[in-house]
Specification:
By secondary structure, this protein is α+β, with helices and mostly antiparallel strands. The protein is built from 16 helices and 26 strands. The protein is elongated and about 130 Å long.
Amino acid sequence: VGPSPDWLVQALKSVGKKSINNVVDLTNFALLEWGQPSHAFDLDLLSGHRVVVRRARDGETIKTLDGVDRKLDARDLVIADGEKPQVLAGVMGGEHSGVTEKIRNVFLEVACFDPHAVRTQSRRHALASDSSFRFERGVDPFVTVRVADYLAALIAKVCGGKVAKGKVEAVSASHPRKPRIVSLRPAKAEMLLGVSLKPAGIEKLFGSIEIKSVGRDGDALRFEIPGFRGDLGREVDLIEEIARLMDYNSIPPALPVFPLRAIALPPGEVLASEIRRLLRDLGLCEAISLRFTSKKALDRLQLREGDPRRDFVPLRNPISEDWGILPTTPLPALLQALERNQNMQEPDARLFEIGRAFFRRERKGERDSGLREVVVLGIALMGEWKECPWDGKSGNLDFARIRGVVENLFEGLRFDLKWKYGSQVGFLHPAESAELFVSGVEAPVAVLGTLHPGVQAGFGLKLPVAVAEIRLDALLAAPRRPARFEPYSIQSAVTRDVNVVVEEKVRHEEILAALPKDLPHLQEVRLNSVYRGKGVPEGQKALHYSLIYRHSERSLTDEEVNAVQERAKAGLLKNPAIRIK
């Protein structure tokens, strides 16, 4: 044992390896040449002249070549002598297992360790080496004897030693005894690669990289995979190797051919698309919020006990406290968006959002999330509602505005509505709110109204706010009126006015309901004004209506219009709460 010859020193230096002594340098040389790690022991220092591959005992320690004392347990695989561990198998040798100039008898160990076992203990001890790098990726299981003979011959030649006869070999039951045989169907390769391939050409390609043909099995070629190609285990691996060997650029490009056909969108997507179009036409902007909210924001809605919106689902590992739960309503996110607009001096905001609300339900299996998802439309309006951008007329948002938006939305969707005024939902003003029903659905599909003053203060909103919450899943179950086109008439309209006096409690819709349903040529009933004051008894109000008549093909005569108008008045007077002034 001594300094290495110049050729060996230069060979190791060319790949960044430092020369130690001739025996160690030769083991490194063989490692780089064959990809097979090995270890040289001083046989005279091995207790009992024994080498044992075993699991470590709990509490055993080894000081590795990097000078670190490492505590071992039964999970570790070691190479030991008759008493103690000498090498952390496949990773690094012990401090006293190395070769020094005093050595006279060398014991060579060349092994093939399981990649998973080496990777596990390398990570556990945070220790990596050239050996662990190779073993983790798999070494050739059929060259250990050849490498041992080759390395022994090198040491004898360079160091002047003599090789002892024979060898000691231990092979586990899981160690492969012979190379893998993988079958390849040329027709399958042609289908995947898009090129014509002949069996003789495939065999020639594989022969160039030491993959030997061992006959055929029907239409399939059989190949013997060398031990150093651990990545080739399936037919498709061989097909990929063909593409690499023949050059990817030689594969002709071809565009995929597939038939095009119209695919109908799911009903929920169609409904959501219609809603987006209608609300944009009404002047609203769509908001897109993160699908999380906070318990604090939900509490600001002042929801009553028993409200299903209170039964939220918390996240196990939230990004922050502000995003700690799944939303049960889109309103907190929309109200926070209104506050941001208010803080940025944009007081007149009209927002809507279509999102999912999440509720608990009974789990049906281990992989079931236990969540029920409901698609909900949220609408939030703030500030003033400008009737006409160029004349400056505007008015503060109120219940009538949010009702008008929702009514126009449902009219565009062709749903028949029923209104129930007053709502017990905590975030709505009790006197300026309503629940909305559609035919075919028993439960309310929407709640709307002005925001409760306490909720408005909780979100820091200083201007009037009106909101609506609409369940789209319920709308999908409701029937819709068929779409019908009516051409515009080019004939002139005829208008007749009528003034009615009613009690304060009588609503506009009750007056409209009193009109006969079969009035011919009645195109529109327009409420022009509501008057309270001189000439009208206290507790009552006067309403001025215009009834607009139009024929689609000709002009109406005064006699025709007057006759229909009298029928309209007679219908109104059938309601004892209505007086015509």
